[in-house]
Amino acid sequence: MKSTLREIIEWLICIIVAVALALLVRYYLGTPTIVQQTSMFPTLVENDRLWLNRWGRTTKKMPKRGDIITFEAPSVTRVSKEKIDLENPIATYNYEPQGLFEKFLYYVLESGKRSYIKRVIGLPGEYVEIKDGGVYINGEKLQEDYLQPGVVTDMIQGNMEESYFTGFTVPENCVFAMGDNRPGSTDCRSFGCIPLEKIEGTVAFRFWPFSKFGGVE
Description:
By secondary structure, the protein is α+β, with helices and mostly antiparallel strands. The protein has helices spanning 2-29, 55-59, 100-108, 188-191; strands spanning 30-34, 49-53, 68-72, 115-122, 127-131, 134-137, 140-141, 168-169, 174-178, 194-195, 199-208. It has 4 helices and 11 strands; from the N terminus they run H-E-E-H-E-H-E-E-E-E-E-E-H-E-E.
């Protein structure tokens, strides 16, 4: 009887340790994810399986231009012309889980949390303008070879409503990000720049479908 009880306890300890290690890896190092939207077409399509590198979040490292990131969806996904503040063009985050257990569910297990996947376009201190069908960084047009031929970047997005975040300087510790499917992406043009602490990970590689296995650019 004692031997059986001891064996059960040992197994329980092994399971608890394994789960704890898996959660630590998921939060601090990396985790798989599935593309569920079309905002990054043609670079990414629905049901692509990706591996996210979360070490950048752990070390608070700013992503590079062109990196594809995931981030917590803002509380306000479209700012009206009357409420926009181009002097402080940062996305609004109103929700903050209360209590240790709620924070664990939200930030570690990501229960009830919505995320977006977009490409980094503008970095801290850069002046971003969207005009003449393209993106201008500090007055120079950005070359975007990852877009489909003929794609126009303007302020009309997937909801077919005009957005107003253009003609501003990206704040410190923030990025300006957009989807590659410019007409079908709700992104920073609509809700503002993303603070570094809200970035969840950077796409490291695609592992499914296997025919597309490898890095994503």
